[in-house]
Amino acid sequence: MRGRSVSEGIRFAAGVASDPSGVVILWKALTGGKVVGWLPSAFAPVPEILHAAGLLPIALESGEDRPGWSGRIDVWMEGDETKPANVEEALDRVEALVEWTGNAAGRPASEGAIWKSLRAYAIRRSLLATLDERCARETEFLTPAEHKDIVRAGIFLPPEAHSRLLSTILGLDDNSVINPSGEERGDPLLVLAKRIVAG
To answer: Of 58, 62, 173, 190, which is most buried by a Cβ count within 10 Å?
Structure first.
C-alpha cells in the first residue's frame, strides 16, 4: 500500500505532465526568471548552463508543441544539428552558450553557480536511475503511465524540485540522497564539453 506522500507525489507529477504551463507560470511568478525553450536536435543546449544563470530550461518534445507555449517561453534557442567532433569544438560551443545565456538572463553564470547546477542535475540523474531500478525490481511500484508522468514532469521543473519529487516518491530523505558528482576540480565548462563528446 502506498503512503500518502507517495500518492501525493504521483498526483503532482501527473498534474505537471498534463498541464505543464501552470507550473511554469508559477515558477516565473515566484522567481521573476525567464524560461528558455528549445526543440530536439543533435546538439541540444546544455541545461546546466541555463539553470546556473537563473533560467528555466525546457526541452520541448516536438516542434508541434511550440505554438502552445507562445507567450509562456521568453526566449527560444535552436540546437545545432551536428554533434561536436571533439572536446575543443564542444568547449567552443559551451563557451558560446555561456555568453548567450548571460545576455538572455541579464547576468552571467558564475563558476560556482555552474558547479552547483552540475550537482543538481547529477543528483536528479542518479534519482531517475534509482527510480528505474526500483520499477524493474518491483513491477507493481508504479504503472507505466505513472512512471512516464514522473519522468516527464522533469522537463518542466527545475532539477532541485524534480529531485525532491523523486525523493518523495522513492521514500528517501535528504540524507539518503548521495551527491554523485564527485570532486569539483578544474573548469566546469571543460567537464561539460567532455561529457558532450562522450555522449
So the answer is: 58
